[in-house]
Amino acid sequence: MITIGKYLRTKRLLKKLTLQQVVDQTRSVYNCSTSTSVLSAIETDKNKIIDGELLFVLSDLYGIKLEELQRLIIRNLQTEHE
């Protein structure tokens, strides 16, 4: 099972973006504030609850369809409760 954090990290790396570049772009393009420490915590699954606004911004920045994220999140939640 791939976690949402690992999935987002893979998508970021495929875009060849550093955490700092993501922070800079979320601020300049989307007017959304985050930090490298928040993103790192998400990517390493230390922070399993992701702000919805940030999730939308990351999905747009990384070119991820929201339906794809929805399926991954739902599947992970169902697996955790089995």
TrEMBL record:
<dbReference type="InterPro" id="IPR001387">
    <property type="entry name" value="Cro/C1-type_HTH"/>
</dbReference>
<dbReference type="GO" id="GO:0003677">
    <property type="term" value="F:DNA binding"/>
</dbReference>
<protein>
    <recommendedName>
        <fullName>HTH cro/C1-type domain-containing protein</fullName>
    </recommendedName>
</protein>
<feature type="domain" description="HTH cro/C1-type">
    <location>
        <begin position="8"/>
        <end position="69"/>
    </location>
</feature>
<dbReference type="InterPro" id="IPR010982">
    <property type="entry name" value="Lambda_DNA-bd_dom_sf"/>
</dbReference>
